[in-house]
Amino acid sequence: MKNESKKIGLILLAVAVVILIVVVFFVRRNSDVPNNTSTDTGNTNTNNQDEQYVQVLEDNTKVNISDKLKETKNVNGLQFSNIQLTSKSNQTELLADVVNNTGKDIEDLTFVTVQFVDENGQQITTADGMIEPLKVGQTVQFIVSTTLDYANVYDINITMK
């Protein structure tokens, strides 16, 4: 009974996320004004400088190639690895594998803030995300996206909310 209610809760959460993504897609597609899902500091100098941390693919996808960004990050017992940052058509997406190394199961959603920084450690922007409940040692994929091009960042800092 308890497992069934957890399954139903996770299914409802997944459905809500899908609906949110569809709504954001259609609203963004029908609007001329960018609809940021991140907290933007107004410092968008990545579009005006030489994009030294970006490789552009044939389909115009920008892939971040900063070695610093790709380093494994450990935050309160959660390990973020296999970090990838891409941008296409002003949609930036951060992907990472998250492993629960806290020594205990995490039964609630974990809310985090991802800070995108330049090589001087100066904040470019932030984006909020969440990590699903995790058992000890379990790995899940973490995804955060923004609707502006932030592919040319040097690194990220992740903090728990």
Short description:
The chain has 161 residues and is of the alpha+beta class.
What summary fits the major beta sheet? Answer: 6 strands, antiparallel
Strand content: 35-45%
Give Rg in angstroms: 17 Å
Q: Total domains, how many?
A: 2
Spatial gap, N to C terminus = 31 Å
Q: Quick one: how many beta strands?
A: 10
**What string gives the helices and strands in order?**
HEEEHEEEEEEE
Strand and helix layout:
Blueprint: H1 2-29, E1 38-40, E2 54-56, E3 62-64, H2 67-70, E4 73-75, E5 78-88, E6 91-100, E7 110-117, E8 123-131, E9 139-146, E10 155-160
Antiparallel strand pairs: 1-8, 2-3, 3-5, 4-5, 5-6, 6-9, 7-8, 7-10
Can you describe what's shown?
This protein is an alpha+beta fold. The protein has two domains: 33 residues; 127 residues, Immunoglobulin-like, CATH 2.60.40. Helices cover 20% and strands 40% of the residues. Strands 2, 3, 4, 5, 6 and 9 form a six-stranded antiparallel sheet that branches. Strands 1-8-7-10 form a four-stranded antiparallel sheet. A hairpin with a 5-residue loop joins strand 7 and strand 8. The two termini are 31 Å apart. 23% of the residues are buried. About 12% of the residues have low confidence.
Features:
161 residues; alpha+beta; Immunoglobulin-like; 4-stranded antiparallel β-sheet; 10 strands
